[in-house]
Each structure stands twice: as structure tokens, then as C-alpha cells.
Design brief:
The protein has one domain: 3-Layer(aba) Sandwich (Peroxisomal Thiolase, Chain A, domain 1), CATH 3.40.47. The chain has about 450 residues and is α+β, with helices and mostly antiparallel strands. Helix 3 (about 55-70) packs across helix 4. A hairpin with a 5-residue loop joins strand 14 and strand 15 (about 440-445). Helix content is about 40%, strand content about 20%. The longest helix is centred in the middle third of the chain and has 23 residues, at about 210-230. Strands 5-4-6-7-1-8-12-11 form an eight-stranded mixed β-sheet, with helices on both faces. The protein has 15 helices and 15 strands. It is globular. The structure holds acetoacetyl-coenzyme A. The site of acetoacetyl-coenzyme A has 27 residues, from helix 2, helix 6 and helix 7. Pfam families: HMG_CoA_synt_C, HMG_CoA_synt_N. Keywords: Acyltransferase, Isoprene biosynthesis, Transferase. It comes from Natronorubrum thiooxidans. One of its GO terms (biological process) is farnesyl diphosphate biosynthetic process, mevalonate pathway.
Length: about 450
């Protein structure tokens, strides 16, 4: 069977940044270490006044097409995943196509376009759609452009304000991909939950503490479902495990839960037993609360073992490097984690071709998905071609007053005009409103 997967990825960050320990924490009267150590974040990316989900998505896609030498005729689908859409009818993908048509001779008139919504998991669902479309043989030799783009803003004063972010990830899905092949096997953990939602409002209603618990519960369910089709997983099976990363502290919890699950009934559990005992089994307890207390105690001890910390340092921590600098990109976040891991491998000269990733996506509301990816021979070239450091370095560092202004600029209920903080260069920009309330864009050389 021909491999189908991600041929190339490009990332586009919002052009502004907010320093969390340096600028945000002092204003909140909080210890900067809550951000750097607790949440695991140094900075958030923000869009400048001329940026939005369309410009960031189109800019990521444009870079990707240029780098891979793709023309509109090579693309048979454009799917945009977002939870920051501004129109209940016209999909963001039509705007993105319109932008790209300004700079290419060809057009996307024969490409199927859509928009995917299921909170942060929609980007991964769009990968599924592309995979299925190619497997079904409906692609006519073409690939799919999947764009995950979000401006993840919370209401001022919400606890989530610390975890904001903005950026886009563009991916080209094709046969014989250069980066990763997607597994056919996948697992789901899905339930009707009220943890984070935006009932026709821009900023989320969020029960932060509950959302953390729902994330973990659904992720565990997805892993068990994945194992039911792919067989038991083992900690040494995967080079990296990129998770949806609303903030790195969340993934610290997910990594520990997954490790505990994976080592059950393995020699690793046995070897650790001298140090911390065996994992408590539900059957051994009459009372559910006592079982949960024992499990919590075991998990706390597991976290402190050298065996776990070494595994975490190799398998999970490298997935978080980019997220620490950009915050939550919602639909793009798990795809940023994948790139972060592969960049780590490149920088450490690891030979990854043929190795596997386990990818754990999550969307509030709520659903988790797990699947494996096999790293392809072309991965190094793909990752080497990214200019992430350059982009992150070039961001304008917002003062507190700037931050308050730019939050208002992107608040749909406010009509605020500010000078741009940065100067657009070779990118699409927002260019005002049309007569039917549509947004207009132009390319700035
Ligand atoms: N030094 C070191 N660590 C510190 C610290 C300090 N001075 N002060 C606090 N911390 C630690 C805390 O112990 C905590 O870590 P643990 O959970 O491991 O104990 C961490 O920093 C965060 O501190 P708080 O829990 O006190 O932070 P908070 O109450 O202000 O809010 C939050 C945390 C609820 C996650 C909030 O940021 C939030 O609501 N975020 C938005 C929702 C979210 O991201 N949920 C994640 C799951 S849902 C999802 O994944 C979908 C999505 O993208 C939104």
C-alpha cells in the first residue's frame, strides 16, 4: 500500500510577542515562576493589527507552496481547521484560496474547500479527511492543503489569559510523503463534555481546572482505543510523543499518565517495584476512593524516578520547546509539538528515519485521538528548511500598554485602531472591509 501522510509543514507565528514572566506576571502580581515552571511558558505570540487567521494561514501555505514548488493545480483540497472563525457561512479556506490566487497564475476552482470545527482537534481531523480522500482514490494525483490557524485569545482577566497564542500551521498531505506516514490505526476518546466552549461568542467560557481533567480522561480513553486496534504500546516504541499542548504543564501531566499506562505489566514496572512498589490494581480495592488515593501516591512516586525522568526528557520534553515561546495555537498546537520534536532530533543529529511518533490530539467538548506516524527519509531536509528561530526572533516585544491595545484591536466587540507595531514584508495583510462585511486582503511585497 502506498504511504500517505504529511509531505511538508510550514509554521507562521503572529508577529508580536508577550513576555509572560517579564511583562504579564508583574502586572498580575504573580510569581514569574508560575509561568516558566508551573505552566511552562516564556512567551505568547500575538497577531499585529494587520494579521488574522486568514493572513497567518495564507502566509504559512504560501511559504509551503514556494518551498515545495507547488502550483494551485497540485492541490485538490483546502481544509482550514480553526476555532476562531468570523463567519458562520463562508469558510476561511475560500479567503485563503483568494489570497494565494493573488500570487499564483493558476487558481483553485477545482479544489474542494471546507472548514473543520471541533475545538483544537480539528486540525488532526482535517488530516484524517485528507488521508481518507487520498486512500479513496479521489485525489487525481493531487495533494491536500490542511491549515490549522487560530488567534487563541481569552477575555481579559480570565485564568486562560496566561495561555494565549496565535499562529498557523500549513501541511501538505500526499502520497509518498517526505515527512511522516500516518498510521491507518487510530483510537478515539470522545464524550459530551462542558469544559471549554464559545456559544456564539468570541472568547471562551472555560472551566480551566475541569478542562485539565477532561483532557486526561479522554486522552487515556483514546490510547486504550488505539491499543485495541494497534496492540499494546510500550514507552520505548516511540521516538517522541507530541501531544496537544495548551501549555507545557498540561503535557507534563499527560506524559506521566501515558507512561504509567504503558509500563503496566511490563519489565519496567517490575524493575521499578523495588523503588516504588507495583501499580495499584482496582481489583485489590473495595473502595474506589482508596484505589484512587493509592494510584495518586504511586503516580507521584513514579514521577520522581530516574527511569521516568529520563524517558520524559527524551520523549516528551523536546516536543515542548516551541510551545514555551508561542503559547496555545489551539488547532495548530499538536502540529507545533511534532515540529518541535523533529527539530530536537535534527539539532542532536539523531537518525530518525523509520522511527515512530505517537501523536495525541485533543479538542475540548471533548475528544482525544491517538495515531502513530512513521518518520520518512526526507524528514531532515523538511525540518532544516524551516525558519522558526528567525520568525520568533523577529517578533515585536509588547509592553503592557501595547498588549492592552492589541487585545482590544482583536476584540470583535471593539472598534479600535492602532498603528502597526511591525512592518509587513512579503506577506498577506488584512486590507479592510468590503460592502457585504467581507474581509479584504492584499499581498505586500
Ligand atoms: N512556581 C512554580 N509553579 C507554580 C507557581 C510558582 N510560583 N505558581 C503556580 N505554579 C504551578 C501550579 O502548581 C500549577 O501546576 P500543577 O497543576 O502541576 O500543580 C500551575 O503552575 C498552574 O497554576 P494554577 O493552577 O494556579 O493556575 P491557574 O489557576 O491560574 O490556571 C489553568 C491554570 C486552569 C490551566 C488556566 O491557565 C486556564 O484556564 N487555561 C485555559 C484552559 C486550558 O488550557 N485547559 C487545558 C486543557 S483543555 C485544552 O487543552 C483545550 C485548549 O487548548 C484550551
Amino acid at each position: 500500500m502506498t504511504a500517505v501522510g504529511i509531505d511538508a509543514i510550514e509554521i507562521w507565528t503572529g508577529n508580536l510577542k508577550l513576555d509572560l514572566p517579564g511583562t504579564f506576571a508583574p502586572q498580575k502580581g504573580e510569581d514569574p515562576e508560575k509561568y516558566t515552571k508551573g505552566l511552562g511558558l516564556n512567551a505568547s505570540s500575538f497577531p499585529d493589527s494587520y494579521e488574522d487567521i486568514v493572513t497567518m494561514g495564507a502566509n504559512a501555505a504560501h511559504r509551503l507552496m514556494e518551498r515545495k514548488g507547488l502550483e494551485p493545480d497540485d492541490i485538490g483540497r483546502i481544509d482550514v481547521a480553526t476555532e476562531s472563525a468570523f463567519d458562520n457561512s463562508k469558510p476561511v479556506s475560500t479567503y485563503v484560496a483568494g489570497c494565494l490566487e493573488q500570487v499564483y497564475d493558476g487558481d483553485f476552482h477545482h479544489a474542494n474547500k471546507g472548514e473543520r470545527k471541533f475545538a483544537c482537534i480539528a486540525g488532526t481531523q482535517s488530516l484524517d479527511d485528507a488521508y481518507n480522500w487520498i486512500r479513496a482514490g479521489r485525489n487525481r494525483g493531487r495533494g491536500a492543503l490542511v491549515i490549522a490557524t487560530d488567534t487563541a485569545l481569552y477575555a481579559r482577566g480570565d485564568a486562560g489569559e496566561a495561555t494565549q497564542g496565535a499562529g498557523a500551521v500549513a501541511m501538505y498531505i500526499s502520497e509518498d510523503p517526505d515527512l511522516v506516514e500516518l498510521s491507518t490505526e487510530q483510537g478515539y476518546g470522545s464524550a459530551d463534555e462542558t469544559d471549554f466552549l464559545k456559544p456564539n461568542q468570541q472568547f471562551p467560557s472555560v472551566d480551566g481546572k475541569r478542562s485539565v481533567q477532561v483532557y486526561l480522561a479522554r486522552m487515556r480513553e483514546a490510547l486504550e482505543d488505539y491499543e485495541s486496534v494497534a496492540g499494546d504500546t510500550h514507552p520505548d516504541q516511540f521516538a517522541y510523543i507530541p501531544f496537544h499542548t495548551p501549555f507545557p504543564g498540561m503535557v507534563r501531566k499527560a506524559g506521566l499518565l501515558v507512561y504509567r499506562h504503558m509500563i503496566r505489566d511490563t519489565p519496567i514496572e517490575k524493575e521499578l517495584a523495588d523503588e516504588i512498589g507495583r501499580q495499584p490494581r482496582a481489583e485489590a480495592f473495595d473502595d474506589e476512593e482508596a484505589f484512587h488515593d493509592a494510584l495518586r501516591e504511586y503516580t507521584d512516586a513514579l514521577k520522581e524516578t530516574e527511569t521516568y525522568q529520563e524517558w520524559y526528557g527524551e520523549t516528551i520534553d523536546p516536543t515542548l520547546t516551541l510551545s514555551r515561546e508561542v503559547g496555545n495555537w489551539y488547532t495548530g498546537s499538536v502540529h507545533v509539538a511534532r515540529v518541535s520534536a523533529l527539530k530536537h532530533a535534527l539539532e542532536n543529529d539523531l537518525d530518525l528515519a523509520g522511527s515512530q511518533l505517537l501523536v495525541g490530539s485533543y479538542g475540548s467538548g471533548a475528544q482525544a485521538e491517538g495515531h502513530a506516524e512513521t518518520i520518512q527519509d526526507g524528514w531532515k531536509e523538511e525540518i532544516e528548511a524551516l525558519n522558526l528561530e528567525e520568525q520568533l526572533e523577529a517578533r515585536y516585544d509588547l509592553s503592557w500598554d501595547d498588549y492592552e491595545e492589541i487585545h482590544d484591536v482583536h476584540n470583535h466587540d471593539m472598534d479600535v485602531d492602532v498603528e502597526e507595531f511591525t512592518t509587513p514584508d512579503s506577506e498577506f495583510v488584512f486590507d479592510g472591509w468590503g460592502r457585504m462585511g467581507e474581509r479584504k486582503y492584499r499581498y505586500v511585497e
